[in-house]
Amino acid sequence: MSNRAQKLLADIKNKNARAIGKAISIVENETELCDDLLIGLSESEMPQYLVLGITGNPGAGKSTLTDKIIAHYRKQNQRIGIIAIDPTSPISGGAILGDRIRMMQHATDSDVVIRSMATRGRLGGLCSCAGATVRIMAASGCNPIIIETVGVGQSEIDIVSLADISLLVSAPGLGDDIQAMKAGLLEVADLLVINKADLPGATALFRDLQMLAREKEREITKTIASTGEGVDKLIKQIELLEKDYNESSYILKKREASKKKEIIDWSLEMVRAKLEKNIEHFALTNSDPRLQAKDFIKQHLKDMQ
Amino acid sequence: MSNRAQKLLADIKNKNARAIGKAISIVENETELCDDLLIGLSESEMPQYLVLGITGNPGAGKSTLTDKIIAHYRKQNQRIGIIAIDPTSPISGGAILGDRIRMMQHATDSDVVIRSMATRGRLGGLCSCAGATVRIMAASGCNPIIIETVGVGQSEIDIVSLADISLLVSAPGLGDDIQAMKAGLLEVADLLVINKADLPGATALFRDLQMLAREKEREITKTIASTGEGVDKLIKQIELLEKDYNESSYILKKREASKKKEIIDWSLEMVRAKLEKNIEHFALTNSDPRLQAKDFIKQHLKDMQ
What we know:
The structure is a homodimer.
Chain A: H1 3-13, H2 17-29, H3 34-43, E1 51-56, H4 62-75, E2 80-86, H5 98-102, E3 112-118, H6 127-139, E4 145-149, H7 154-162, E5 165-170, H8 176-181, H9 183-186, E6 191-194, H10 202-215, E7 220-222, H11 231-247, H12 250-279, H13 289-300
Parallel strand pairs in A: 1-4, 1-5, 2-3, 2-4, 5-6, 6-7
Helix pairs in contact in A: 1-2, 1-3, 2-3, 2-6
């Protein structure tokens, strides 16, 4: 490992905010120091940490709830990492909701490490960068590390696979199409939360979720994030589940599956970079794109038959 | 081309609804007849068609607006294709919002061809299936072909790249995080629509959009889809833009870029299938996933150095 990577890693372990930010940028941009840093991280002894995924539709009050969850852990003097997944701007390539995060009341607390992360331009695979960011935060002593997403789509499902425990936050009165969007996530989330539980429609939503939750024996917790009601109960559910998962080695199995997904995502990112370079010089024909794809990869990836 | 593919293609051209549905399923599932069918399609003379993308946040009234746009084209006796992109259920693997579509008033009209399509389980790349579906619908005489999306994420941006002309629908009062989610799409959409223009906040939203629209000289159209107000004006904008794009060969360039994207998406889907099979037998180590990914693809894709 180079001296620079060694120094950076030591600074991360010393909770140096700039070093943490720099390390994440190195991984995001895959710059020179990236491999060295990742080798160093993988050889470091890692403190225990829990990865908490918080997903759900816009309007469900995720940010307010996340704020309250952070406040709870801070009261217990735990250092927290937050990765906020934002929709990517296809032009600037960067995350666009940074401001949303910076507004959070914990932004000035040096033991709340916040990082906004774009869903990247292209692959849809989030796990590559986010996984490394989790480990950088963990090395700096963060526990838990919360991954919060905006929007609904493949990235949410990726995040659930990266989290040890994932919360799906919904709320009454969001309209039919919004509710329907959650269906994919409903099947994979570990805990279901009905936020804004004081609004009309909360009981009906509870009944709907109950049908889905029962199959997998999952808890549904009602919260009113704006007042903090129900948050303590939710934290208790998280702790119970963490204990459960640890005792049954379920978290280990989950992390192994997530590591495989990360390897696939990194691999595809490398393959995509190669293919996107090659497509520029590929002579398009009138034949169907799927058949041209077969020719294309035969030219550039000879192992693919 | 096999007899079965030839027969299927002839049935598609004869507007046989079952043949169209079957053909799309063949492409989605990449079953036996897939290549044959796609070869047949690419060798057929294709009637002219426009691909119209309609994206925007849940709650903006996209479905109602789409309904009104369909009604307009039906009055002119045009046959319409609609591809509704739904979030995928990671467990069932299928599209989950089919019902939303089936409820549409045009569902019994044989000249409105509706297909619900999942964002697929994994790749995030939508263009592969959706592109072939567009061509199947076009071969059956559909024009325009409308691609409507639910949710906001990478798939929306993919859809914009597949559309000749894309509309971004927003509405006042959707809340800050919902508005912010559009930012990525704002940069790439061809026409901006403020629906529910009678609601408070419409003027402020118009001002916000105006700043963004001006840079690319894009029109902002106000509509009230529930009453149909503004829809005629919107259609006129679409027609003007179509004329413009055709005269400047911009559509041809757009379709070439979209074909390249489709080739990349199909290629990555094939690569992913191979990698996912191989990862099962890959011996995980404690090394970082990114470094393991390098070993992994070196083992299975020797051209990747």
